[in-house]
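does this look right to u?? alpha-L-rhamnopyranose version
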Amino acid sequence: MLPTSTRSLRIAGVAVLASAALLLTGCAASTGDSGSGDGSKNYQITFLPKNLGNAYFDTSDAGGEKAIKEFKGTYAEVGPAKASPDAQVSYINTLTQKQVGAIVMSANDQKAPCDAIKQARDAGVKVVTFDSDTSADCRDLFINQATAEGIAKVQVDLITKEIGDSGEIAVLSAAANATNQNAWIDLMKKDLEANHPNVKLVDVVYGDDDDQTSFDKTAGLLQSHPNLKGIVSPTTVGIAAAARYLSTSSFKGQVKLTGLGTPNQMREYVTDGTVEEFALWNPGDLGYLAAYAAKALIDGDITGKEGDSFKAGDLGEYKVGKDGTVLLGDPFVFNKDNIGDFKF
Ligand code: RAM
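got this back:
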């Protein structure tokens, strides 16, 4: 029997392929116009990622679409081109006017979208955050991919192991205001100070989840810090851009790179030796769980208080924990021995 996280990662890989095949043959299940299987519930659920064109959110939102089709709701996805702090506000306002049943979003900023979210909730729209939270009082529920402590620790463990537990490292993050990134970076700093006294974090730079910016920031880090031994990039966009830079440079294999990436984006860099190991969770399952949480709120089965529980399709039963948070599972480490098993 595979460990749970491996098992669900595999199921999602197959599901993604299956839905791609359906689309190719033109047989994708249609989602009703009423927004609900029997017309009585408003299952119009719209995903609002940090930005469009990010492979991570393509996969998470496809998981949401799969769930919404299962309960015969109407899936949609909207979002800004750039992951900037207040870029999501106008989308929330439009969705409120359209009276959708729920918005499922990854927040670019802890506070900036909160006034718009409040208006949405006052108008009866349920708001679920996933991946990157707002402040807890602002939304109904947060679907957390893994604990922030676990996400921080896996990255510190990987980089300190790869550089031999001493020397300079730097972080290449996403947008400077991203709630999830900042929480992880703070915890990484604490872990480094407490458990790795010979490792020095010399810089944190921001690639804004933009490929070219992240690529340029990687070059900048290597120029400014000639003794750099490692880079941690807790963003799928950042780690892929940094790997591309390193792979054709003289730093390949010398400066270690790890962080959070998708297997599809990282496969060639693990194969060519630029990257040894990196981590992530299953983004498809995350979106799937978030969509079922939105349904449970719409149905009135849960309100988001601690102890509430709901059924999330194939993933089974989930419980709401402290601060209206639902936890998906543990982060998972990918390397050359297992990356071939994953297709997302
Ligand atoms: C990027 C985004 C996202 C983060 C992943 C790991 O796609 O910044 O919020 O969770 O990386």
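The longest strand covers residues 199-206. idk if thats expected tbh
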